[in-house]
Amino acid sequence: MKLDNNVSAVITGGASGLGAATARMLAAKGVKVAIFDLQEEKGEALAQELGGVFCKVNVTDEASVDAGFAKAREAIGQERILVNCAGTGNAIKTASRSKEDGSIKHFPLDAFNWIIQINLVGTFRCIAKSAAGMMTLDPLPDGDRGAIVNTASVAAEDGQIGQAAYSASKGGVVGMTLPIARDLMSEGIRVNTILPGIFNTPLLQGAPQNVKDALSASVPFPKRLGNPEEYAALATLMIENGYFNGEDVRLDGAIRMAPR
C-alpha cells in the first residue's frame, strides 16, 4: 500500500506509547490519522500536532467504538488502515497463599474478564467494524482495500507468573490473526500482528533506573528497551508491503521471558 494523503488511518491507544509513535510515522508519510483513546488531553494535543482528529473511545463499549468510527470517517474519510494498540495488563496469580496467615485466594474472575474485554474483545470489535468499512472502498492499484495491524505481546508465548489473563488475551490476538486474514482475503484486506517485548513506553518511563537497567540487561541483543519508533517502523512495513499477511511477528531483541 502506498502511503500518502489519499490514505486514512485509525490508531487505537494512539495518544501515547506505541500508538503515538505509529501515528507520527504514518502522518509523516502524509496519512490522515484518527486517534482513538481515553486520554483526552494527550490525544487532542497529538491530533492537533499531526493535523488529525481525536476520538474519545472505550474499546470495551460498542456505542463508543461506533461513535469513534463515525467521527473519524466524517473528519478524514473511510480508513484503509487500522492499528490496534489499545490494551492493558495486570499481575495476579491463578491461586495464591498468603505469607501472613496462610489463607488461600484465587484470581477474581471479574479482573480476568476485564483484561480479556480490553485486549482481546476490544481488538476484535475494532477489527470487525473497521473491516466492514474498508469493504466499501475500491481497491488500490496493488489490490489492497485495507491493512490491519494488531498488538499482542511476547507474553502470548512465554507469559510470566501472574500473567494468566494478560497472556490469554494476547494469545487470543495471535490466534485470531490468521483466521481473520483468511476471512478478509477475498476483500483485499490484510491482517498482521506484532508481539512486542519490553518497550520504553509510559508504563516503564516512570520506573526507577535500576529496574530499567535490569530489564535492559535481560534482552540478549541489543541490551536495551525497545523504542516505540521501532514498533512503528514494523507496523508501517506491514502496511506498505503487500505480501505481508496473516503473520505474527515478535519484536523483542530475542528475549524469552523468564517465569518471573
Automatic annotation (TrEMBL):
InterPro entries on file: NAD(P)-bd_dom_sf (IPR036291), Sc_DH/Rdtase_CS (IPR020904), SDR_fam (IPR002347)
E.C. numbers: 1.1.1.36
Keywords assigned by UniProt, alphabetized: Oxidoreductase
Pfam families per the UniProt record, alphabetical: adh_short (PF00106)
Origin: domain of life: Bacteria
Enzyme class: oxidoreductase
Example GO molecular function: acetoacetyl-CoA reductase activity
Family per record: Belongs to the short-chain dehydrogenases/reductases (SDR) family.
Protein name: Acetoacetyl-CoA reductase
